[in-house]
Design a protein that fits this description.
By secondary structure, the chain is an alpha/beta fold. The chain contains 23 helices and seven strands. Strand 1, helix 19 and strand 2 form a beta-alpha-beta unit. The protein starts with a helix and ends with a strand.
Length: 685
């Protein structure tokens, strides 16, 4: 019989899977597309809107430039997709940009990429969920006041689905993703057909004018260039998540690299088609949207709280005949679902990348351990917790969150493409076949173009978004980079300390074994502890107690003598009524007298069945063990005594509950320089 907590876990997550089942969890292309590409595909829903929001700062004068900016975004997306196909074939072991930068530009550059990607994955969850909630509010404005609660709830649901396993989440999320693709393509086809036949769609906001914000009424040439660059950097949100497939190549079925490259190409083609279609329809329907609703003409005194329908919502209403039409609700439902599920790309990419970093010693090794369903559960939970905190802090506002976004994407794009240029240069130096040399030269040109273009975009994004909030993303990346370096140094230092330098010295047995039993009264737990102490082949056994109250100590001494115990009892004085410090000082004195002795300290400890009972027992024991474990040559042994409340719990718990113990990666510190031959082997911490 299992407990309530275990039963609830099984209902939510499912039964535990054996390690041998891992090969059966690999993904076919039809499931890999919605799992790894839902983020770049869903960005179609808000990338056009972000471009328009920048141009409408100056009113409606420069909105026509949206088409040119969108064309530049499409060209950039094509370059990045083609470049990452080269990464997939060159590094089929996964790791994507991190693996490329580490191998070709050095560990520090690889860590920069890793930190940028981890931050960006968190932002992907926050922005995608917030944007999904925006589209739900567009259909049901009454939910506007509950947007934060909805967003956090969606993050919890996504985390739960991903804890069930990659294939399960893929099956669940495949239908909404394909529904979104179909709905948007149908909307684009119907809208463009109407435009061609002279029945162009008209948005509900087409008649509204937009007042320029102060300072944007009359732009100089330089200011206009800056405005265009800001719009371009905002539109580049369409590229988020492109690298996720290169990170997740090991999750594909064989042939892994070819299947991943094909999925990447299909994703790029669909994303370009939908983004171009939505942008074209938004311009045809004359969608007008502003970051500040008070800029719109015809708004009342309460304009600041006026909810605006998103660009894709206005386009759908214009194409299908209003916001009460079936087509409108179909598009909005699919859009809201896919935007929320777009975070699934991060829920797959973040744990995979974190597991690789943990294997290399840059993150705690618990992140390398697979959970019940053969997913990296700790990574899923960590991502969900941080993303939920961001949504609460920024009130689930896409406008506030978007400035923290995409900086990490282009950092990883630029460094990975630069690393690929060096990779092909080194490969060319060792290649003699003319056909292969031509292939490598072509690949190098592709990646060189990608490096230059994404590098320029990185500079633009950093310059235009830094003061608006991107500095927070930079600070988070720097903090994460520093933390990962510190973790790696810790593991390396630990490996040096644990290394066997002199086998002869290590094999020397201790001179004597001294056993100390900590007692507070003469009772059954004390008798069991004394019996355990006698079972040791020890040179001396001694009981110690602390004299907090002189009368109680004298009574214990008399009771000890009356019991006829053959173990001497030593009473330690404690003028300040402390317990842990006198015992620790006494144990240290034993070690000082004979440094080659080993001291066993045996402590009776209660096993309880209710959590609140822990507050009543074992608190002194906990502090004492922490103090004693810091003393060299001391072994701390707890002797459990089961209280009656623990008996029902013990009967319900199986001998080895699924998930109670994990075998994970051996401590990365033991082999800090070996990043390719690591194997699972030690219990997780």
């Amino acid at each position: 019989m299992i407990g309530l907590g275990e039963l609830l876990k099984r209902l939510l997550v499912g039964r535990a899977l054996r390690s041998e089942d891992l090969s059966e969890r690999l993904l076919p292309k039809r499931l890999a597309l919605p799992i790894f590409a839902s983020d770049p595909l869903s960005s179609v829903a808000y990338a056009t809107q972000e471009i328009l929001l920048v141009f409408t700062l100056a009113g409606l004068v420069y909105v026509h430039l949206t088409a040119w900016v969108a064309a530049a975004v499409v060209a950039l997306l094509v370059v990045v997709v083609v470049s990452y196909r080269q990464v997939v074939y060159a590094y089929p072991g996964g790791g994507g940009s991190y693996a490329v930068a580490s191998a070709n530009l050095g560990p520090s550059a690889g860590l920069v990429v890793a930190a940028a990607l981890l931050v960006d994955y968190v932002m992907t969850v926050a922005v995608s969920v917030a944007s999904g909630v925006d589209n739900i509010v567009s259909a049901f404005p009454v939910l506007h006041e509950h947007r934060v609660g909805l967003a956090v709830g969606f993050v919890a649901v996504l985390a739960t689905m991903n804890l069930r396993g990659v294939r399960e989440s893929g099956r669940i999320f495949a239908a909404p993703t394909y529904l979104f693709i179909g709905a948007v393509l149908v909307m684009c086809a119907v809208g463009l057909a109407g435009w061609i036949t002279g029945n162009a769609p008209v948005a509900e906001s087409a008649a509204r004018q937009i007042r320029p914000e102060p300072g944007y009424e009359h732009l100089t040439s330089l200011a206009l260039v800056v405005l265009i660059l800001r719009a371009f950097s905002s539109g580049c949100t369409a590229l988020t998540g492109v690298e996720a497939i290169s990170n997740g190549v090991p999750a594909f079925r064989r042939p892994k690299a070819r299947n991943a490259a094909s999925t990447l190409a299909v994703m790029g083609l669909i994303a370009v088609t939908m983004f171009a279609g939505v942008t074209t329809l938004a311009l045809i329907a004359q969608v007008h949207i502003a970051s500040d609703p008070c800029q719109l003409s015809g708004t009342g005194p309460d304009c600041a709280d006026l909810p605006q329908r998103t660009v894709i919502a206005q386009v759908a209403a214009a194409v299908f005949g209003g916001h009460h039409s079936i087509g409108f609700f179909a598009v909005q439902t699919a859009t809201a679902l896919v935007l929320v599920l777009a975070a699934n790309t991060a829920f797959n990419g973040f744990p995979l990348l974190a597991s690789i970093l943990a294997r290399h010693g840059y993150l705690p090794r618990q992140l390398y351990t697979r959970g019940d369903r053969l997913v990296f559960s700790n990574g899923v939970l960590a991502l969900a917790a941080v993303a939920a905190a961001l949504l609460v802090a920024f009130q689930a506002s896409v406008t506030n969150l978007i400035h923290l976004y995409i900086l990490g994407v282009f950092t990883s794009f630029t460094l990975s493409q630069a690393g690929m240029v060096r990779h092909w240069s080194q490969t060319l130096g060792a290649e003699s076949q003319a056909r292969l040399r031509r292939h490598h030269q072509t690949a190098r040109v592709i990646n060189a173009v990608g490096a230059v273009v994404t590098g320029l975009v990185l500079v633009i994004v950093l310059a235009t978004k830094f003061a608006e909030g991107a500095y927070l993303a930079v600070a988070a990346g720097v903090l994460l980079w520093t933390m990962m370096r510190g973790i790696r140094r810790h593991y390396e230092r630990l490996a040096r300390e644990l290394a066997v330098t002199d086998a002869a010295t290590q094999s020397v047995a201790p001179a004597r074994v001294f056993t100390v039993v900590v007692v507070s009264r003469v009772d059954a737990p004390t008798m069991r502890a004394l019996g355990y102490a006698r079972a040791f082949r020890t040179d001396r056994v001694e009981a110690v107690t602390v004299a907090i109250d002189r009368e109680d100590s004298q009574a214990l001494l008399a009771q000890w003598a009356a019991s006829g115990l053959d173990v001497p009892l030593k009473i330690l004085d404690s003028p300040y009524r402390e317990i842990t410090r006198p015992i620790a000082a006494y144990v240290r004195s034993i070690r000082r007298k004979s440094p080659r002795d080993v001291v066993n300290v045996i402590i009776p400890e209660y096993n309880v069945g209710r959590r609140w009972e822990n507050l009543l027992h074992n608190q002194t024991t906990l502090w004492l063990k922490k103090q004693l474990m810091l003393i060299p040559g001391v072994v701390v042994i707890s002797i459990p005594w089961r209280l009656p409340s623990s008996h029902p719990i013990a009967r319900r718990v199986p001998h080895r509950a699924p998930g109670s113990v994990r075998r994970g990666e051996p401590d990365p510190a033991l082999r800090p320089d070996d990043q390719s031959t690591s194997r699972p082997g030690s219990a997780s911490e």
